[in-house]
Amino acid sequence: MRKILLLLALVLANIVVKAQSDTLSITLENVKYPYPVNFMPIKVEGQDLRMAYMDVKPAAPNGKTVMLFHGKNFGGYYWTDVIKVLTGKGYRVIVPDQIGFGKSSKAFIHYSFHLLARLNKNLLDSLGIQKITLMGHSMGGMLATRFTLMYPDRVEKLLLEDPIGLEDYRTFVPYNSAEDDYKAELKTSYESVKKYYQTSYFTSWKPEYEYLVNIGAGVSKSADFPRYAKVAALTFEMIYEQPVCYELGLIKVPTVLFIGKEDKTIVGKALLSDEEKAKHGQYKILGPETAKKIPGCKLIEFDNCGHIPHIEAKDAFFKALTANL
């Protein structure tokens, strides 16, 4: 009997250890990034915060810098292969985790693209970098657009990879308060994250994408997850209430738009009927329409590819990226 109890205790201990190893802090302390992470101290609305970033220098510098802005459900960790390609071409690469995301502070503040753009400008100033090529994916595309509109003299070229906000979600997505979104975020689980990533981000699922789910879902097990969920709701509100699509024609720097033709991303998609879903988020239509709005914009499309070409269509994406730097 004693042996059986001991065996059960060992099994339970292993289960507990595994559960703990799967739990991530809301600032991803236990997630290893591909390059060393630095922190810039900042003060916002009286709060002392810190902004995480990677500053990756190439072995053979060409004197130019690329800055990468991540999407809403990601952090700097998913840029690994992009950083390798860019540094291999001699570019210094700056990869911030925006405030509220990744390893940066999860602050209760008024989130705005204007504020985030200014913080990124301050980061460049602190590093002594005057000119960049700016690349933004998903929500990062909205932020990159706002940054370029605010600081056109700092951007040599704008690269937008499946940016969200190509249509005004307020015109067809029902309004949800931050409190409503917070309650929805609290229901996050491994299963819900994986289902969302499978159906929203990729045309077909591969085991190599699993790490994205593990990070996206791992934070939901943290005791601090309610804070993370609240910040996620506040940043959803930022995306919903602060469209940039009406200002695309004001962009004055050379722009390249990379589009996965099977992307059907809609912010707030779960609130829509099937009929409404079919009308919106069609990137094979939104891509060409957006390219016409941006003066001199070059459109590059990827067949059989969803929301993240730099992961799902690596070879084609990297070929197009390096050809258009």
UniProtKB/TrEMBL annotation:
InterPro entries: AB_hydrolase_1, AB_hydrolase_fold, AB_hydrolase_sf, Epox_hydrolase-like. It holds the Pfam family Abhydrolase_1. Residues 65-313 form the AB hydrolase-1 domain. Residues 1-19 form the signal peptide. The keyword ATP-binding does not apply. Keywords: Hydrolase, Signal. GO terms for molecular function: hydrolase activity. GO terms for cellular component: membrane. This is Alpha/beta hydrolase. It comes from Mucilaginibacter rubeus.
